[in-house]
Design brief:
The protein is an alpha/beta fold and 393 residues long. The protein has 7 helices and 23 strands. It has 2 domains: 210 residues, no CATH class; 158 residues, no CATH class. Strands 1, 3, 5, 7, 8, 10, 12, 14, 16, 18, 20, 21 and 23 form a 13-stranded parallel beta sheet that branches. A 10-stranded parallel beta sheet has the order 2-4-6-9-11-13-15-17-19-22, with no helix packed on it.
Length: 393
């Protein structure tokens, strides 16, 4: 597959720049239901699929959106990944950022690690040279952490060696017999941590009793359900107006994105979820430098546009599906698809507890579909240029 150079021509290009994939040159984008990568690669790579397994050597950064990711290779760069299940066994020469329901890390990592998930395991053979930050329901830390560790979870078990300070916030916190904390151990919980007599804490131990009375520390407790019918009607009307503007301005692109959801919705959702999760982290890291402040502000603007248009594309795709059931023959109206889809989504957003999840899913699927269409449309001219060169030669 030819490399895809990125130039600042649209808001999706700006978004790709903020993902730091094009600042130094070209990168590869590959998608499919099952991707098995081996061999050597010398450019940054983006993979999207249901099942992704990487066993090769990559001289650059790796971005993955998948249902299942297994990494057994070597990356001389960073890995950013979002999936339902992630297993990291290979070597990473820089940092790792992952989000998944289940995460298992058994690897040598020269940078730091940030992990978001339900069940997170840092296995005993893991060596992390820098900091560790974990946010999950259950966290098991058995590996060796070269610097500080920050763990936020419902059930936290520490069995490895922490060379720096350890800070924990959770419901149940335990230090197993093999645990070693070279620095201070600070934690906040309802009850005192269970510390094995064989565990070693060389610094101070400080406990703060948690004052959080929420019954659940999960995501549902952090994200309020959509509410307020007046505001809902205002946002619905605004979304329909923006959708009409998008249809008038870029009818072909909007139609392709909606069709992408209908034909490849799972991959679009996984890719979009990765973009939705990792973009705020990248913007924060970009903004810590004076030079990066303008880029971070521009990225925040782009993120807002993606927020608006992502759910519009998803709503349009839903409307096309509904009209397709009703009208099996003839052309389907994009305008009516937009109106029907956005009204249905507005009603689904009001479902207690599940409303915020439907909102996030629609946003992610729409953003993923726009990204897939963008890269596929850029890949066609690149292939045409290559064919023209071969013909002229």
């Amino acid at each position: 597959m030819p490399a895809i150079p990125c130039r600042n021509q649209s808001f999706l290009i700006v978004f790709a720049v903020l993902l730091a994939w094009s600042s130094a040159g070209a990168f590869s984008f590959r998608s499919g239901d099952e991707l098995y990568m081996s061999g050597e690669f010398s450019e940054d790579m983006m993979l999207a699929g249901s099942t992704v397994k990487f066993e090769g050597t990559l001289w650059g950064d790796l971005l993955v959106a998948a249902r299942t990711l297994t990494f057994d290779g070597i990356v001389d760069g960073n890995i950013n990944a979002a999936a339902q299940r992630i297993t990291i066994n290979g070597e990473i020469c820089r940092s790792l950022r992952v989000g998944a329901e289940a995460i298992n890390i058994n690897s040598k990592i020269d940078g730091d690690v940030v992990a978001f998930g339900s069940e997170i395991t840092i296995a005993s053979d893991t060596y992390l040279a820098r900091d560790l930050a974990v946010f999950g329901s259950e966290a098991l830390i058995d590996g060796e952490i070269g610097s500080d560790a920050y763990i936020h979870g419902g059930i936290i078990t520490i069995g490895g060696k922490i060379h720096g300070n350890l800070k924990c916030y959770g419901g149940k916190i335990s230090l197993a017999p093999g645990a070693v904390v070279m620095g201070d151990f600070e934690y906040e919980s309802q009850d005192k941590a269970r510390i094995s007599p064989e565990a070693q804490i060389l610094g101070e131990t400080r406990w703060k009793k948690s004052t959080d009375d929420r019954k659940s520390g999960g995501l549902a407790g952090w994200v309020p359900p959509p509410s307020g019918w007046i505001w809902s009607l205002i946002f619905l009307g605004g979304s329909i107006i923006l959708g009409v503007i998008a249809i008038v301005a870029r009818r072909d692109g909007v139609q392709l994105a909606a069709r992408e959801i209908r034909s490849n919705g799972a991959v679009a959702g996984i890719l979009g979820l990765a973009i939705v999760i990792f973009t705020p982290l990248i913007l924060v890291l970009t903004a810590v430098t004076i030079v990066g402040v303008p880029a971070a502000l521009a990225g925040l603007t782009v993120y807002g546009l993606l927020f608006l248009f992502g759910k519009i594309i998803a709503g349009m795709a839903i409307g096309m599906i509904i009209l397709g059931w009703w009208r099996r023959e003839g052309k389907i109206s994009l305008g009516w698809s937009l109106v029907i889809g956005m009204i249905l989504l507005a009603l689904l957003y009001k479902i207690p507890f599940f409303g915020w999840f439907i909102y996030l899913l629609a946003w992610a699927v729409g953003v993923g579909a726009m990204t897939l269409v963008f890269f596929r449309r850029r890949r066609v001219p690149a292939a045409a240029d290559a064919a023209a060169v071969d013909t002229s030669g």
